[in-house]
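Two quick folds needed for the group meeting slides. Do the first one here.
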Amino acid sequence: METGKRIYFASDVHLGAPGIKDHKAHERRFVRWLDEIRQTAAEIYLMGDIFDFWFEYKQVIPRGYTRFLGKLSEITDSGIPVHFFTGNHDIWLFDYLTTECGIKLYREPLVKTINGKTFYLAHGDGLGDYDPHYNFLKSVFTNRFAQWLFARLHPNFGIGMASFWSRKSREKNLNSHGVNYLGDDKEFSVLYAKEVLQQQENQSIDYFIFGHRHVARTVDVGPGSQLVYLGDWVQHFSYGEFDGNSVELKFFDDCKKV
């Protein structure tokens, strides 16, 4: 990793979410952060739920997000890799951002060594067998035949219906889990990380980087191993920064500006 460069991680921006009062201001804030970090970024990892809902028809994509998509293209055109992990809200992202904006897309967790540190990277949903009900729903949404059927719906109806589901899903998760840390013995991500560490024989993991829970927190999950909850861009405006030696959880300080 080049001296002075950083690797950045962000998750759960939820662009287009119904509960956000000013969507353009929300998008502009995240774009300002991207524009600020590009000066020192070696790589950028967007860890899922960047969109509150996304579905790509063959000739149609959801309306909006012009500033964000343009900034993504500008960053990748400049040679900075942008990695995008699908989350539970943008699970139906296919090839548009790859072909048009130059991102690298991931649908499964990724283990990667960066500057001598091993990272386990994932959005954080559906890990392990801790939530069988959600895992079943995820298997339906990732089924190609189910996606083909949904694509037969007119975009005005299909996107509207899916946006309604997205809002209900978020409300259900807030009611059941909230945005507060539940404790090491109750957080699925912590339990899963510890399970992964127990299964490792020859490779240790220095950092688990997860989103999904809207919790901004760092948790020790084993000797020399930490789980970094990235928080969100709805309440925390938080992100992870790796300087080549360690990961630090930070907060974008112009979050009050519009």
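Then this one, please, same format:
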Amino acid sequence: MMSFFKDRNCYLRDYNLPLLEKIKRFNYGYLFFITLVVFMGIGILYSVAQGNFDPWASKQLVRFFVSLIFLYLIALTNLRLWMKYAYVVYGIALLLLIAVSIVGHVGMGAQRWLDLGLFHLQPSEIMKIALVLALARYFHGASLEEIRSWRFMIPPALMIIIPVAFILEQPDLGTALMLVFAGGALFFLVGVQIWKFCTAFILTLISLPIIWSCLHTYQQRRVLTFLNPESDPLGAGYHIAQSKITLGSGGLWGKGFMQGTQSRLNFIPEKQTDFIFTVLAEEFGLFGAFALFFLYAVIIAYGFVIALKCNNFFGKLLAMGLTINFSLYVFMNMSMVMGLMPVVGIPLPLMSYGGTAMMTLCISFGLIECVHINQEMVIGRRGSIDDE
């Protein structure tokens, strides 16, 4: 199979754009749609708090503006800097994951956070960015002959497997699946043959009994509930049953802002995080849901266009990988709340309440903006990081 990207080995003079030129090149349309979704989320958080900015909406607003500063600063950096330190970022993220398994903060039965005093940090969110950075760095300048070599593919495979193992131990099945799917998507884009994906899929099917035995009891219940939601409607199936009821009760136009009965009567579990989409659908109906779909589609389209327009392979892979990450966020959360896949604890990006998620998403958008601003830069083959 030929790689989706053809121009992987080209060269061009390096250049360092003036700050003013970088600011002019900033894609403000991309940022506008991101901000629009965030404020939709803040509105829903205000609603689920019974018309109060506390405890969620006010904090989310502050987090977004702080994250926006990071987005803007990262966008104005030199793309070569991220390529140069991609492995360093990955190593730091991996060390943080190891630290979680040793001294991590336990919350809601899971050990996923590091208590840093002022806030709790979730290193698995950082790994979503770090993995894409490391894979983009590794595959930059690689020939199709190298990619077809199984020896060449061992390091990137380990880059995925090692953090996935630590994340599954937390346990966090949703994030682990996101890393696997995002990594697999990048493997496909750089030209890994289809038969290797088929082989991996067959091996996964053969290993299902082992994988099942390694799942925690609550994870097994979620899978069984997905296969038969009516088996335990007041227990393991309660979340998804209430989610479906809420989605259907909104009808075409919804019940109106702050008029959702399911959310106001607290039938919806985790309504400020994982199931926030159901609140939106109840209050604004199918129209509101499709409006959100449209905004997400525009943001995703912006990311793909930026990736395709970039003249260097590292930037292409970086923007594409981060956009795929965002797409997986959206797809997995909406599929989960609609009962199309088991509940795996994935928040709805830019909408759900959460500090680390908001920060890492804005860092991702900042990197994509950085690719856009530096799209005319072409970096040499793997290992040629410094200016030629």
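Slide caption for protein two: The chain has one domain: 19-373.
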